[in-house]
Amino acid sequence: MKLLILAGGYGTRLYPLVKDTPKALLDVVGKTLIDHTFDKFLSLKDLEEVVVVTNDKFNDILTSWAQGRNGKPFPVRVINDGTHTPEERLGAVGDILFVLDKAGSNTDWAVVGSDNLFDQGVIDFFDAARRNAPAVTIGAYDLGDIAGASKYGVVETNAMGKVVSLEEKPKEPRSTLISMCLYFFPQRSLHFLKEFIKETHKTDTTGGYIQWLYQKTAVYGFKFSGKWYDIGSIESYQEAQQFFSC
After folding, report:
1. How many independent structural domains does the chain possess?
2. Contact at 8 Å (CB) between 173 and 154?
């Protein structure tokens, strides 16, 4: 299995904090966002490689970061998607396909957002995901807040954990369970990504892909507990600092 950390965005909603620094390297309680994410996967025994996808603007900075993490206990490399401005960005799905073309699609892939801050470990998630394979498994989190859920992809699952509904940013959420930016894509499921692009011509959000995918084939959700935060704005960054320091 390989891990892809998504860091291809430009973080425009966090300007001026990230104008010259990638959002992935923002500090939260003494540790960068990407290190919070990276360290979650250190205990996985079958992880062959970690790939970080970024843009040309932040490529050198993240390459320097990666050089300090190599061999702990797997190789780390950065792939530059070649974009220079927010208007050129490939989008999350576009970046995933870009990396698969560069790094190979002959293995299982885990995908996680570099701004996806959570404190529960991932061992149980991958145990469940492998049982669900070849179906895709997504990480989910119960916000416990209907109004807050409207900012995210709202998920409903059945008693077996199978996704039966996913709505992106609904005005009237039907649950408080939301989709995290954490996915397990078994090798046998990867062909759906190209089918999605061919059918929809959309490359932006992974949530849009999962919304399309669960209507085509089985997708399962794994519910995380503990703390979770999505760093999307200066306000959410400040709130996360307080939340995770408690």
Report:
1. 2
2. yes
In total, the chain counts a number of residues equal to 246
Question: SS3 for 27?
Answer: strand
Residue 8, CA distances (Å) to 85, 91, 145 in order: 11, 8, 29
**Which positions of the chain have pLDDT values less than 70?**
246
Residue 246 confidence (pLDDT): 66
42 and 94, same domain (yes or no): yes
- Distance between CA atoms of residues 35 and 25, nearest Å: 8
Domain that holds residue 236: 1-119+227-246
CA angle (32 as vertex; 124, 114 as ends), nearest 5? 55
Token pair for 42: 């250190």
pLDDT in tens, 69-108: 877 789 999 999 999 998 999 999 999 999 999 999 999 9
Residue 176 is assigned to a structural domain of this protein: yes
